């Protein structure tokens, strides 16, 4: 099994409709892995407190922002998510000339969550992630398994006005600002000669390794990528296909257009097999700060057989129980050393019911078609309902404290269609 991992997209005006930023990501993970969608409120902490990430404990900050995350249920961080300030982040596995086989440290997924909890703009998230990278490093198995599947990380980060692409190799990194149009990333380095921020020793390190002569124009992807591209060939194909799909809707990119891209199987973006799309996210962020962002999550595998359900940040939000996996606390096999000696059942309520429906869709053509059509119709209705909030703001926040959970109930009612 050769892991292929994910695709992340962002579209900014003028490539979008209605002065909005559209962010999207498919999380491609082992096919037996459960992805949950969870909400954590903003929290204040006392001086000296620590936070336990997936493998290591680090210093906590005085205040964390409210976040909604889509994450593999066994770990602390997240594959993708958003915060109350409408910052969105997704990460990708990347491999290059520098070995990724380091000791346990922060996972790229931990850095996604930490960036969301600690930064109220995309640019600040770049700073948060790179400072943590410098202090704690990145490393550790990225699968719930002893296989030591490790990688470096790239991140696509957006807010209400711009996006940033951040790519790392060990502690070294480069970042590029994206102020308009669209951008997508797969599992390969994509920053070339336009570098807007960088690790102060990044070029000198490359030169000391003989990867760059110090004279020719510095191209981050060329310098830090593998000499051979065999490992990233599939991601290169997905990257090109993703770019074509964005170009096809250029000027008219909407939430629906992004969902269609994430559902595309011919391109490999909607992945099937041992590694498959286990969770998907699409966010709609108006550039107007008085309007809410709407964040859609599937919380289930295969977006083609899933419903994108809306989430809006309001006060007094309820926990997302239907998409929260069981917690095993200190008895979790991930926490005990040696790690990964067993795998507990991490299926959440929606996952269990979706699994049954996916089997029906697969084996009962007529009923499956009816259910799938019902799911698409429900999704269209919810997108239309969210348009009111995107255009006019949130007039009654109390009605949205259960938005995501009530959307799940509507999804479950579609499942029971005969």
UniProtKB/TrEMBL annotation:
Please list where the region (Disordered) is annotated: 323-345
GO terms in the biological process aspect are: proteolysis
Named from the GO MF annotations, one term is:
dipeptidase activity
Q: Which domain of life is it from?
A: Eukaryota
What family is reported?
Belongs to the peptidase C69 family. Secernin subfamily.
Q: What's the protein called, per UniProt?
A: Secernin 3
What is the name of the gene encoding this protein? SCRN3
